[in-house]
Hints:
Elements: H1 4-8, H2 10-14, H3 21-31, H4 34-43, H5 45-56, H6 84-92
Helix pairs in contact: 4-5, 4-6
Amino acid sequence: MLSSYDVAHVQDILNGEGDWFTAQLLRLVAKADDENRNKLHLAFPEVVDAYFDWYYSTGSYAIKGGSTIYTDVPRSDPNLDQDPRQHMKNASKGHLLRS
């Protein structure tokens, strides 16, 4: 589902570039609260993981430098550990953490 273009241009897409489905989905993931992001991860794990890889600049989809309107997205769930992808894995097994 995630094209090589999407992977290489996550920051541009989050800043408003593109109107295709994956671009809109990436922006939705960035805006979603933790509970809804968990639900999106169940259906679109590759897109949510790409967002987190970009956001934390540690994964294979990392974009270096620049800024975006989404750099201050709060993590509202105090139960999340350092890597929210672990929380996503727990949620996909039916173990949603509640605050």
